[in-house]
Each structure stands twice: as C-alpha cells, then as structure tokens.
Amino acid sequence: MEGLSRKLYLKLPAPTEADSRSSEARILSALRELGYEARMTLKVMRKLYPLCEKAGWQLTASLAWDGSCWVLVELEAGDTTREHYGLAVDLGSTTVVARLFDCNTGKCLAEDSAYNRQIAFGTDILTRIFYSKDQPEKLEELRRAAVGSIREVLEKLEKKTGIAPGGSIQLVLAGNTTMVHFFLGLDAFCVFQTPYAVQADRPGFLPAAELELPVSGYVYCYPGKSNYLGGDIISGMVATELYKKEGISVFFDIGTNGELVVGNREFLLCGAGAAGPALEGGVVRTGMRASEGAVERVKLTENGFELGVIGGGRPKGICGSGIIDLLAELFLAGWIDLRGKFVPEKSEKIQEKDGMYAVEYAPGLFFYQSDVDEFLRTKAAASTMVEYMLGEAGIGMNDISEFYVAGAFGKHVSKESAVTIGMYPDMDREKLINAGNSSLEGAGRLLLDKKILDELDDILDKMVYIQFGAVDDFLELMVAAQALPHTDLERYPSVMKKLEERSKMQKTVSKKTN
Amino acid sequence: MEGLSRKLYLKLPAPTEADSRSSEARILSALRELGYEARMTLKVMRKLYPLCEKAGWQLTASLAWDGSCWVLVELEAGDTTREHYGLAVDLGSTTVVARLFDCNTGKCLAEDSAYNRQIAFGTDILTRIFYSKDQPEKLEELRRAAVGSIREVLEKLEKKTGIAPGGSIQLVLAGNTTMVHFFLGLDAFCVFQTPYAVQADRPGFLPAAELELPVSGYVYCYPGKSNYLGGDIISGMVATELYKKEGISVFFDIGTNGELVVGNREFLLCGAGAAGPALEGGVVRTGMRASEGAVERVKLTENGFELGVIGGGRPKGICGSGIIDLLAELFLAGWIDLRGKFVPEKSEKIQEKDGMYAVEYAPGLFFYQSDVDEFLRTKAAASTMVEYMLGEAGIGMNDISEFYVAGAFGKHVSKESAVTIGMYPDMDREKLINAGNSSLEGAGRLLLDKKILDELDDILDKMVYIQFGAVDDFLELMVAAQALPHTDLERYPSVMKKLEERSKMQKTVSKKTN
C-alpha cells in the first residue's frame, strides 16, 4: 500500500561522543535512508525526550503527506508498524459515513454512520444555507455540527474496533460543495447564487488539529469541479475508475439534485440539475425517509400489494425505492397509463380522495395522482439529463459500456423497476451498476493510494461542464420523458416485452375468471 | 528584496457565469501567473467572503515561505504591498533584541530589546536547565518566559513604529542551542550532558501560531551545529559572510562560553569552550553587569584613575569592558607585572586587603589579586582557543584577514586594551572587527534573502568541530597565555612598544620629580 501515510520502524544507534547528532537529525536521516525526506512537527520534537532514550532508540515514525512533503506527525516506542490506520469519510447532508482502514493491508476494518447533526438546522441544504448566510456565529454552529457528527462516527468505529481515532494518521473526506464549505466554516450562499463561483474548491490537506478532528496528521478534502459538482462526485470518479476506461460510462448520482458525468479516459462531460425532492420521498404525501416503517419494496400480484417494510413492522409510509417499485407495478398492471394517469376501473384500490384519484397501497396509506405527477416530473428531469448529455456528445445509448448509479438511490432501488418507469435506460442489466456510496469508496481509495492525487488534477482539468437549464431543447426533451417509460416506447424494448407478457397474463386471468 | 515573504497586489476579474472559478482558484491562479505556486491557509479561506467582493476583487496577498512552498497566510483589501514587514530576533540568555524590517526596501525601521524573563529562574543558563530538567511544567514556565520576552519587545517595536507584530509575515530567530530548546519547549539538559546530543537542531519553519507569536506566517529558527555551537553562531556566519570570503577569518563570540570559527569559503573549523563568567563581571568581587553605575572605561593618568561610568553617576562596580581597560592600564603602568601580580610599591592605591593585595580603582571599590588571577585564566582560555585552532589548521596569525569579535563583548571592549592584555592578537587594528550583535544581524539578513537558506546547509556541512578540552596541549598553551600579554612577548610588538613608551615617560616623570 502506497497511501497518504507511512509507518516506519527505526532502529537507531544511541548517541555517542563520536556520533552526537541531535535526536531530530538521527531520526530524519534514518528516514532519508529509507527514501523519505521529512520534516518534524513541534509536537513530535516535544516528545523526543524522554521517549527516544526510554525506547532504546527503537522507534516507529508516522509520516503524513501534506500535499508537498512528508511530515513526521507521531513517534512511538518500539515497533508499532502493524498498527497503521486511516479514515475515509463521506460527509452527506443527511448521513455521515466513515470507514476505518488498515493501511498496511488496505482492508476496511469497520464502517459506521450517524445522522448529520446539521439536520437540526434544516433537513434540506438550502435551509441551512439561508440559516447561516452572513451570520458567522450560525455558520460556526453548522461547522461544529458537521465536526461533531464526524467525531460521533469515529467514536462508534472506536467502539467497534478498539482503535481510537488518534491512532489514525490521515483522514480523507468527500462531500458536496456545500457540505465541505460548512465543514471548513465557509459561508455557502455562493453555491446557489449566480454566478455560482464558490469560495474554495481545492482545500487540499489541512492540519487535522485545525479542523478539530482527532487524527494525528491531515484531513484531505476531495476537490470539487463546481458548485453542483463537488468532491463527492470527483470521489465517485475515483471509485468507479470511469476516467481510466476505454469504454464510455455514465455516472449518475440522483437525489434532490442529480449529478451526471459521461466519459472515459479521453473525455469527461459533466452536469448537474435539480431533480426535486420526490426521489427522497420528500413531496409524496405519505413519503418518508428510508427508516423503520418505510415501504421499500412493492409487488402487485393477483392477491394485491405485497410489501417489504424496513424493520418488518407495520408500514408507516413509503420511501424512494418503494415509490419506484410501486409506480413500475402500477404501470405494468395498467393501473396507471402511459401518461401516468390512474385508470380507476382497473381496481377498487383506486379511489377518489381529496378531489383526485389515489391508490391505497397499504392499509390507510394512499399514493395520490399528484404524487405520481410530481414523481414523473422528477424522473423526467433525471433521465433527460442523461439523454441531453449523450445527445450533446453524439453518443448513443448503445455506446455506453457501464451505467453507474451512485448514492443511496442506486443502492436500494430495484434496477428492473427503475428501467420500467424509464428512470434508467433500457440496457443490459449487468451494465447497470449500483456504485453504492461511491463518495465514501473513493475517499478510501485515495487514502490507500497516493498516486491518485496526481490523477485528480487530470480529472478536474478534463471535466467539461454542461449547463442543462440554459437550453430550450432540454424542456422539450423533459416533457417527452414524463411518459411511462417514455414517449418513444421503442427505446424501452424490455419494458414493451413485459407489458405484452402482463397483458397476455391478464387476458389469461380474464379468460379464467370469465 | 527576495526574502522569506512576499506581498503581491492582485487585480482580479470578478466572477461571471463564463468564469465561475472559485475565489480560491481565482487568487491562486493569479499568483501562479506571477510565478508563485502557493497554497492557502484555512484562516485565509475563511476570510474570502465577504472580503473579495467588498474589495472589488482588488486584493493583496501575503505569501510566506514554509521551507518547501509558498503559503498564502494573509489577504487584505486593496493594495497594501507597501506595508510589507518582517521581524528578526536574537534570543539571548540575558537580553532579547528584535528588529522590525521593511521587507520591500530591506531597511531596519526600529530595534528594541528587553531582559529575558527567564532570568527569574536563574541568571545563568545552567540554573535554568537544572530548574526545568524532567519537569514539564517548569519547562513550560521557561518557554512562556521566552515567548513573553519576545512579545514584550515586539510590543515596544509597535509603540515605536505604529506597526503591529501581526503586520509582519515572518519572524527569523537566532539563539544558542539552549535558548532555542527552551523557546520550543524542549528539555535542554542534553546540551550539557555527555554525549551532548541535543534534541532538535534544525527546527526550521514552524507556524507562528503554534509558538504563540503574533506574526501571520512562520517562525524560522536558525539551525545549530552542535550543543555549544548554536543558531546564534550560524547566524553570525551569515552576518559576517565569513564562509564566502577568500581570506581566512576568525569569528569569536566570547562570553561565559567562547565560540570560535576559523575559515573561509573553503573550510570552516569551529569549537567552543567555557571561558568562565569573569568576562561578564561574574566572579570579580565588585563586578557587575553593564548597567547603570558600572565602570566601563578606565584610564590611569598621573592624576590617578579616570573612569567612564554608565549613566554618568557614582560608580557602583565594574563591568567586563571596564575590567579589561583596568587590567591594561595597570599593566602598562607597571602596577601589575607580566605574571599579573600586583607591584605594591608602584602606588599607594595598592593596599593589602582580606589577606591579599587589591587596587582601589574608585572610592571604596577594590579590584583584588584573586580577581586579576581569575580574569587572566579566562583571557587565557579565550586566547588559547584561537591559538590552538590556528595551530591545528597550520595557520599563522599573519594569514588572518579579519578577526571578528561578536556579541556584547566585542561591542563594548576597547580593542587597544584587549590587545594589551593579550586577549586579542596583536594585529592591524582595522582587521580587528567588532561584529556587534551578529546573531541579530544574521537573522535580519536571512529574513531579507531567501537564498541564504540553501547556503545554511553548506555552512553546516562544511563546519568541522574541534574539541578543545580533550587535548593535553591545550592546558600547556593556556598556562603560557596567562601572562600579560603572553609568555611569548614577541607576539605582541605593539604592546612592547607601548611598554617602552610608558617606561620612558615614567623615567621622564621620575627625573622631573627627582
């Protein structure tokens, strides 16, 4: 492993009159012999005595890369090279997730998460931005909330492994531009205000102590490309290695906002746009976060709805992946039509409620026509981003080798359902890849491979930003994409096939019941 | 001036939709265009908003060299390049002296000093070392005292100039090894304990905030060569440029300890030894520091002693320069002989007191035979260091182009008197150079000339340390050097001439009185 840190065991000769070099020189020249030109922090200088003598001059040095040189940030008695740890953090607006790595083997020893304490100041990012705009004390509250959330996760990792955060040398953090601004204590209004020039997008290596995090070396924040394409996406590039491949990939991170990268080792096009909160259950009346009691799986059978509920108890609402399943099933069963309108004659479950149709997907829980409409606008926005960008680049869907879906959405959503409603393109299912938490994954990769630092400059230089909102075309495409799965059904052969099969089955059923 | 800091005025384009680079990127790329690849501190990132906008994107960046790259440590609105300051500090065991520089012109704007507050823990270094040995809280007291003393001088400089210390970017500090250890918070017992391997001798650039000093960038501590040859001596090399010259120079810093360097651009021999506290008035019964009431000049005329007293009032004691004058005058007048023994028949001022002879040099103030003996041992130790080292190198006194005497001693002592008693060699007086506070001078030079950093490595590599105490020869030479001016009178032709002139005068006077 050639990561951002080193642990090196030094067996040094004790000072004699003939060799009365300083402890500092003795250690640094031994490191030089091992190929590391390093400097020593004041903290380590203050530890030299009596540590060196007591340890019989058998010492382990912790080296941290600071972006331009190696820094000796910790010194221990004896050989502790086996205890070589580092941390990767995904700082999400809702959840903070961290992994503890053994930096000798590259093995992830534990992963844990916590809610981002900033939620107390607003569940969505914009509320937090307005809350703290031009108010340094409030910005400081948000900064502390972020740091506190990270520390909470690090403590959980310590409980799991017995390894204290101070035992880690480096911490690599990935987050979107707003999250990184808050984490650094920077006003984030710039992220959403024209001309969208943010304050800092390449903060690099900062001393962990300055950021109030307990690792012994530095915190590296993943650089961002622009206001909407933050470090979490760049980290996703590293996780998927999209920028190294010959084949063209699509990388799509869909949440309230959608971030998209299309490219390969030759080119990288990127863009971002608002998808709306529908995908996270935000607008849907009975929508909820993916927590206990949320319907996350839906199947519509002859016997009605079969539900998968988080925690297994009574359903309390429906989360993003549940909604997509529900829509796919309603569509395949013909309970909603191509335009997403309820077909009330199809089932008694479709009732009129509050002046519109709604389907009772669970006892007392309804999914309304307005929910469907909202959701379809969102899915149209999302799928149009991909369509538009491929069009701009003159790339057909058949040219795509891999279609990565990142984030919680990619992790939980059923591929089949997402294709059925036209959210994902209709392509070989093995090309549709759930990239998982690629932000966290990329943070870990960088922690363990210093060479990636050089590649990041290349990635950022290569990325060409494409504005979605600015084009008339875009709206037109989006209207077409609001159909289920799409106005142009030929793009969805597998969905057409399913529809045919279902209608055959239904005919059979009809025949049987007749 | 190409020093350790830069101030650069940047007129940046305001962000537009077409150029929505981050403020950080905007500033750093403008610096790159000016030839400076820099990184930005967290503190500056936090200042970007609203500063950049308010300043209409006309900003002045303060860059500090950190030993391996440029760091943007301060950002100001408008063009403040004219206010470009830096500090040089000589951290002495008794006195802390600092200079404030205009880093654009290289001009020293003010100099001031304060007593080192560590004196409260012991006037001599050894007491302080024992006080704090293995006692971190006491070491911390000493560290705070050093820092407090420096801050006090910086405040005095602010009063004189109106320029706050925070307006300076870098601070270069020179001090002996013990002083630098205390300043950094390092136990200094190692300096005096065999095998004399100190803890840190190349601390380099450390963030000023970590050292609790108010400059915006870094504190650079001059590196040391060994326990007794500290940063103050290396700084003296830079001040005198001895290591650049073709002719061979001697650099001699005499106090309680003597530090010596002999060499030129080809070689550098160095050594150090205890001279004893006599030179600083430490052992002499009526000796005192060079403060108000101290006799600093002595002339012996027909009418008796003519005294120069610091502050002009009644004499209270005698300081180093006064002692050397006194001895020279006593010797030339024949009141003490070649071996330094009082010749009581020469004057009624020589009386028996406390079982020995003593001369009353001022009303009620006596200089005893034991004082003379002690002082001659000290001067013998000092002059023998030079003699021994030149002997080792096969260099004759005639080969010496310049003989620098550094420190307070060199500043105040009369060259003539020092030659007369054999403390200095008998050479052309213009070759005997008072180097003044060369430690402070070298600190200032480095502040203003970054290239010197590279030269320091050369200097340290080239220096060859010669042990004085270890050689039998040394003691033999020292005994010979205890005579006035030296057992080998032929080395002191100018003193012989003076003696002859005085004896002629006295004969004339005798004849007149007869």
The number of strands of chain A is 22
The description of the largest β-sheet of chain A is: 6 strands, mixed
Assign the CATH architecture of the largest domain in chain A: 2-Layer Sandwich
Give the largest interface pair and sizes: A-B, 44 and 44 residues
Strand order of the largest sheet of chain A: 7-6-5-8-10-9
Q: What is the radius of gyration of chain A? A: 27 Å
Keywords:
Nucleotidyltransferase, domain 5, 34% helix, six-stranded mixed β-sheet, Ubiquitin-like (UB roll), 22 strands, homodimer, alpha/beta, 4 domains, 514 residues
Structural account:
Chains A, B: It comes from Fusicatenibacter faecihominis. The structure is a homodimer of 514-residue chains. The first copy, chain A, has 4 domains: 73 residues, Ubiquitin-like (UB roll); 137 residues, Nucleotidyltransferase, domain 5 (2-Layer Sandwich), CATH 3.30.420.480; 154 residues, Nucleotidyltransferase, domain 5; 94 residues, no CATH class. By secondary structure, chain A is of the alpha/beta class. In chain A, helix 7 crosses helix 12. Chain A is elongated, with a radius of gyration of 27 Å. A 6-stranded mixed beta sheet of chain A has the order 7-6-5-8-10-9, with helices on both faces.
Give the gist of this structure.
Helix content of chain A is 34%, strand content 26%.
